[in-house]
Write a structure and sequence with these properties.
The protein is mainly alpha-helical and 261 residues long. Helices cover 65% and strands 4% of the residues. Helix 3 packs across helix 4, helix 3 runs parallel beside helix 5 and helix 8 packs parallel to helix 10. The longest helix is centred in the middle third of the chain and has 48 residues. It is elongated. The N and C termini lie far apart (103 Å). The model has no long low-confidence stretch (mean pLDDT 88).
């Protein structure tokens, strides 16, 4: 059988695969000069396919002649390498499928949160630009955080005209969603702020109306002036109306200021 030439690229691939190590004696470059050997000799029908090539030092290759390898360690090594390549291929395929599933999940979240926003401010809904903006928000915040921010912005910034949200206020409210997400994320990392949000949650659940932005601002002022968290919490559990809480909290802040001199 005619010997096929082995290209430089093929030689490099075989050397690289075998870690530049003679597969017969274990010696490595540059301690020895390496050559490419045929596992099944060309004289016996062996090809120059990479699966039939192996790294050999000059001495081992010179002594091999056209005899086939009686030691199957090289064959086993190639089988192992093929198995590893197949495993890497399967893992890559799984990673691609995983990324596809993440994309589907992300698309699902965008669609559901778009519907949630539309239900908050009918008859308005997000256009394509709005959905792209929502996608960016979901890259940085959880769906729960974004939904909570949507709800807060609608309560605080939506204005009505003829029982219908005005276009300008809807646009303004949407532009505030990202800022509220970031503010709440930073606040949640502070244990004191977490307590204040809990107190505001008590007020939200108990009162018919609550200005959430003003409420959290007043609670922060109280804490900065030395008000105990438990006192603020107990009062939130007792107060009956937003007007009462607002007025008494403002007075409490003035009292704390006077106490602090």
């Amino acid at each position: 059988m005619k010997r096929e030439p082995i290209t430089k690229k093929m030689r490099f691939e075989v050397f690289k695969r075998d870690s530049f190590t003679c597969q017969y004696c274990g010696r490595k470059a540059p301690d020895v000069s390496l050559e490419i050997d045929h596992i099944k000799p060309v004289a016996k029908g062996g090809s120059s396919d990479i699966l039939n090539l192996v790294t050999s030092c000059k001495g081992c290759n010179a002594g091999k002649s056209d005899r086939e390898l009686s030691d199957n360690s090289v064959i086993e090594k190639q089988h192992k390498q093929l198995s590893e390549l197949q495993e890497r291929k399967e893992q890559l395929e799984m990673m691609v499928e995983w990324q596809k599933e993440l994309t589907k999940l992300n698309d699902f979240a965008i669609e559901k949160l778009s519907i949630f926003w539309a239900e908050l401010i009918p008859p308005y809904r997000l256009n394509d630009n709005g959905k792209r903006s929502l996608e960016k928000l979901l890259n940085n915040y959880s769906p729960e955080q974004v939904m909570e921010a949507m709800r807060i912005t609608v309560k605080q910034y939506i204005e009505f005209e003829d029982d219908r949200p005005t276009h300008s206020s809807v646009q303004n409210a949407w532009e505030k969603v990202g800022g509220i997400c970031e503010m709440r994320k930073l606040d949640a990392e502070n244990p004191v702020n977490k307590e204040l949000y809990y107190i505001r949650g008590i007020l939200r659940n108990r009162l018919a109306y609550l200005n959430e932005g003003l409420a959290i601002g007043l609670l922060r002022k109280c804490v900065r002036l030395g008000a105990p968290i438990e006192v603020l919490k107990e009062y939130a559990l007792e107060v009956k109306t937003w007007a009462e809480w607002h007025e008494n909290t403002e007075e409490y802040i003035e009292y704390l200021k006077n106490q602090n001199g």
